Every structure is written in C-alpha cells, then in structure tokens.
Amino acid sequence: MAGGAREVLTLQLGHFAGFVGAHWWNQQDAALHQTTDAKESPGELCPDVLYRTGRTLHGQETYTPRLILVDLKGSLSSLKEEGGLYRDKQLDAAIAWQGKLTTHREEVPPKNPYLQDLLSAEGVLSSDGVWRVKPIPNGKGSLPVSPALTPKSLIPTEGGIRVWSDFLRVHLHPRSICMIQKYNHEGEAGRLEAFGQGESVLKEPRFLEELEDRLHFYVEECDYLQGFQILCDLHDGFSGVGVKAAELLHDEYSGRGIITWGLLPGPYNLGEPQKNIYRLLNTAFGLVHLTVHSSFVCPLSLGGSMGLRPKPPVNFPDLRYDATLPFHCSAILATALDTVTVPYRLHSSPVSMVHLADMLSFSGKKVVTAEAIIPFPLVPGQSLPDTLMQLGGATPWTPLSACGDRSGTRCFAQSVVLRGINTASHISQVTPGTSLPSTLHACASGEEVLARYLQQQEPGAVSSSHLLLTPCMVAPPYPHLFSGSFSQQGVVLDGTSKGTVQSIPVFGALRSSSSLHRTLEGLAEELTKLDLRRWASFMDAGVEQDDMEELLQELHSLAHCYREGHSLPD
C-alpha cells in the first residue's frame, strides 16, 4: 500500500449496483493504463484509495479493487465466485477426504465472447491448471488491450449483456464476491423483493459472520482508512440489506465516512402494480433509514421521479441512450459517480469523505442530489470562460437523482468537479485592450473561473470546486452513446467523429437544495394514499404498521430540513 493513501472500501449491494460498479471499475482500470504525456497527466487521482496490492499463491503481484460485492444466486453467469486471478486447480484437487466421492456438476453458462477475447489478451490457463497473467505494466491493474484485437471484438453487443459480469474487465479478489444463496436472481419464485427480506439477510448469523470476516480482512490491512462507499439498489430488497450493512459499519467503525449511493434503474412498467408499489416502499424505507447510519445518501437514477407517477427519463444533449437497458443507464451513472467522488480520491487534498459530508449535510440535510453535464461541451479554440458563458444563465446540468425539475429552488451547499480540461483552455486569451465578454474572462486561473461561475449561479450557496486535467475514461466496453461528432478525447468536432471516443470531459455536482423538500414530501404523500391491506405480502416480510407510521414522520422531518429559509452553516 502506498504510504499516505486514504483508503476507501467499496460495498456493492444488488444487481443494478453490479452494473454501475462494473462500469465504474472498468473506468478505474482504463485510467490506470492511460498513456498520455506526463505534463498532461500529473497523476491527480490516487488509485491506491480504491485498490489494494497482493500476491497470488504463485508469487505474482496483483492490484485488485478493495471491494465487497453482494448479489443473488444465479447472477454471476460464467464468472466464478472466487474470481479468476487466484484460481489453482492443483489446490482444488487437494481434498482431505480419501473415501468415495460423488461429483455433481452444474452446467457452466457460456462465457460472453467479449470476455473470451479479453482473457486471451490478458493471460493463459497453463497445462498445470494455473492461470498465468501476462506481465503487468508498473505492477498495477490488468493488461492493456492488445492492439492486435480489433475494436469490434472488444465491444460487447448490447443483446449479449444479461448480467454485469458480462462486461466486467477487472479481476476481483477471492474475498470480493459474497452471494446470498437464499434468494434467486432469475425466475418469479424466491426473489428478494421487499425491504424486510433484505434486513433479515443480515440477521442470519452465518451470512453476517461471512460479511464481517470480509470487512475485517480489508479494513485491517489499511493504514489510513477514511471510510466506506456503498452502492446499493433502492428499488428492491437490497434496500434492507444496505440499511443493515450501513448500520454495521456505523457501529463497528465509528468516525469513518459512510457515503451511500442509492441506485434506481430505468423506467418502470405501469402494468406491474405490485412491483411499482414495492419499488416505492423499498425506496422510501431505504432512503430514510440509510440517512440514520450514513454520512449522507445520494439517490442516483436517470428516471424523472421516485414516485408512482412516471415521468420521462432525463435528457443529455449529446447522448443517445436506451433508458430500458441497464447497460446504458449504469454507464452514465458510473461516469457521474467517477466524477463526483473525485474530492476524496485526490493525491493531495484536504477533503476527506467526512469533510465532504460535513459540508453538504449540515442541519440534518443527510440526502443530497447529483447532477452532471456528460460530456462537458468543449470546442476547439474556445476557453473555459467561453464555454461556461454559452451554457446560459439557468443551471445547465442534468439532474441524476429522480427529483424532477429543480428550477426555482435554492441551493444550500454544493461540491463541484470539472475534469478533462487542458491547461491551455483554463483562462481567456482575449487580446489586451479588448473589452471582456464577462467577469469570467478576467480571472487569472481556471480554478478562479470555476469558483466565480458557481458563485454567480448560486450566490448564497456554500461551494467547493475542483478543476482537473484528468478526463473520464469511456473506452470499450463502455457503450457508444455519443450522438454528436467528437474526437477520441471527447472534444466537439465540426465534421465526423475520428475513431472511438476514449475519454471525455465531465462536469459533476453534489448539491443540497430545497428541491428535496418537494421530493420527500411527495414521497410521504404517495405513501399516505396507499391501502396497505392490499400489500400485506410486503408487510409480512418484516415491516409493522408502526414502522410505516414512523417512516412517514421521519420523511416529514427530513423534508422540513430543506425548506427555504432553513438554517445555513455559520
């Protein structure tokens, strides 16, 4: 472990969390191998915050995510629960029992063609049954994709993506994947549908002990653990799993940051009333109870609303995506996540998870929203002040927390990251003596440009901002979602695109605003109208009528924190 890295342990809970996580880790892996000039890539982000070093049983150095991933039986497809990096058939054969053995084999799901291409690029399974990884540059990450492989062979077809492991290109440690065997990923029976079911999973001694063992394994090797980030599905029973996991972390690791990203997949089908009611109840219970144990909670969704009244998915001017495909939605959310988490992943920054939470969640405001511009519209020859002025007076970024239109609302605090902007574009190059188009053009640095822009947009808000050279990586297997003409670095072009887009500039923000008052009160109103007698199966899973009444009170109390005029920090 590199000295001074402020480590973070990531927990992924649920299948959509697995989709977002797969894109997220693919982006981290691509960033490890970004081959750019040292002057243009100063190593702003510290990968040791998210990754750990180790060795296989054969002495090969590994660099794997510091990750605990929880999903249901049948969700891994061809991925082995123990991963592929450490597997050794010789050890598998060393069985203590010497008597008669009966072997039962399940049919192995066919490996996705994309992963077959990837594995052939990264290593071979030798005749002795040992996986031999090809030499890793700098000893970190997985091998960069071989130029001999055509781009088409390394782009998974959307029809071939059934589960998140179909496009994960990162090797995981054997202690990363933790399966819930009691519930099924597919089929109509044995599903993890309700909040109470999820809570009960972590009340089972065997599963709780397994989770605690994995936590201790990762935590005890950390020198400067700053906290935990939880990617948790909110729409199903994993909302209950997330609450109990956050409670466990809060009780065992007091003082550490716990940031929860509550994930909601794309639009839902009005013809499935039970699923929609369960979605509403799971989201409300998860959101409220996660705030108790988390430093803050941020819902992430491309949907227009958390409630039962459907609204169109959000729009990005330069993206064309299918909101019904988890592969598409999760890629966009991962890009936003990779950007807004920058403050606590920097090599040199006083901002920790706890500091970030303290700035955003004062006075009980434990829910924040995320917003982004993907990609940030850089045009050759234009400066950052030019681009920001062209975005217009209204807040131009796209909401990503299913809180609807936030026009006319007030921002209390915000953490903003703008990344992928080269130094030459930071300030205006207006000829001396020429009148300045705006006060932004008078700024002496890019950091000053961004800070002044935010002050103009939200004059009363507490703001923190970071400007990075490092772009966000969107190389395959990231889906091709870009509708305009872009260079490989995500710069807007007049003509046709030149090659596959490899990286893009992104603007991302976490905000505490009065829009959450309307959202949380709206949730409470919809819950009040429910006739719970019709949904006895949800209640039978472990939720009492008193729990429902307490939930409504807590929603109202939480919403009250976001009223206009509620106290601001000193």
Automatic annotation (TrEMBL):
GO CC, one annotated term: mitochondrion
Keyword annotations of the record: Cytoplasm, Mitochondrion
Record domain DML1/Misato tubulin: where: 159-346
Pfam families tied to this protein: Misat_Tub_SegII, Tubulin_3
Protein localization: Cytoplasm; Mitochondrion
Domain of life: Eukaryota
Gene3D superfamilies the record matches: Tubulin/FtsZ, GTPase domain
All copies of domain Misato Segment II tubulin-like, residue ranges: 6-118
GO biological process, alphabetically ordered: mitochondrion organization
CDD domains recorded: misato
Annotated function: Involved in the regulation of mitochondrial distribution and morphology. Required for mitochondrial fusion and mitochondrial network formation.
Similarity section: Belongs to the misato family.
UniProt-recorded name of the protein: Protein misato homolog 1
Annotated organism of origin: Castor canadensis (American beaver)
Organism placement in taxonomy: Eukaryota, Metazoa, Chordata, Craniata, Vertebrata
Gene: Msto1
